[in-house]
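Researcher: Excuse me, tokens okay?
***
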Amino acid sequence: MATGPCIREVAGVFLKLGTIGFGGPAAHIAMMEDEVVRRRGWLTHERFLDLLGATNLIPGPNSTEMAIHIGHQLAGWAGLVVAGGCFILPAACITLAFAWAYVHFGSLPQAGGFLYGVKPVIIAVVVQALWRLGQSALKTTRLTVIALLAAAANFLGMNELVVLCGAGVITALIDRLANNARAVLPVLSIVGLGAPLLANGGGVIAAMLVTPFGLSSLFLFFMKVGAVLFGSGYVLLAFLRADLVDRWQWLTEAQLLDAIAVGQMTPGPVFTTATFIGYLLGGTPGAVVATCGIFLPAFLFVALSGPLIPRLRRSATAGAVLDGVNVASLALMAVVTWHLGRAAVVDGTTAVLALVSAVLLLRFRLNSAWLVLGGGLVGLSLMH
């Protein structure tokens, strides 16, 4: 691995990723792999996969936690804060601008043409990342079979966390059955980080039911969401609708759907939906409070789990668990890519965009940032 970067280089990379990172967590992680593994050599494929596996075992926004993990690996505790903050900041600012326009003009600016061209490019970016990471992760026939089983289980509807934990445990049982069972405890401690919050999440909600709107209650609500949420943006929608629309009636259905739409069509983490909602409810202070609340648990979980990763690799049994989690993580990315691809590649034009992008990435190693920009410009030109 190459010499580690300075904090300014880390900030620059994640500011760029936060600005051009369209397409959701799978796309963000693919872009991170392109920047820090392939282009700069700051991390090996193996280390990147270990971070990805650890990220998938804790609640919260996966791509943001991956940025925080990478920052910590590259530049210590300062890198942890800088990488995460720089990845979140562009998306939060763009979302805040959308929220201001929404409040003042009563509707969302149209971005359909741009996204029409960007989405198929994002599919190509994810596919090439899966190809490269798969070459490192699928080290044995056993791991390949586990990855295929994990993909099938998730495709049929099994919960993501169950798939990840199941793959890790099965791999360890097959590979290290005769070893000391205590070696797996560091992994179980990572999984356990989120368990008390998952178990007590309902109590947090119940305590807040009688709380009128205020910045403190807004912060606590979004901190709870960030602390217990596993899964996709659709799971986020379910959380927000249950509390903000049904229970407390702070938002209307239309406002919530517009907030989710903004989160989907802006770059960076989808969780910046919280920024939009916070602005609707409490102006700029509300946007700041909601954004801090939903992302704060990610920093805390990574800070707690990050130091355990080297210990996992030193333990044969824990390393086997991590291998299983890694291949299951790639399987989940593959399933997400399949579903996203069906929505992104909708006609001949988008199919050509996806194919050309894949060739440029795999054959000529073109920077994905240029492809994202080019795809967006093609989409805009076709819509006018």
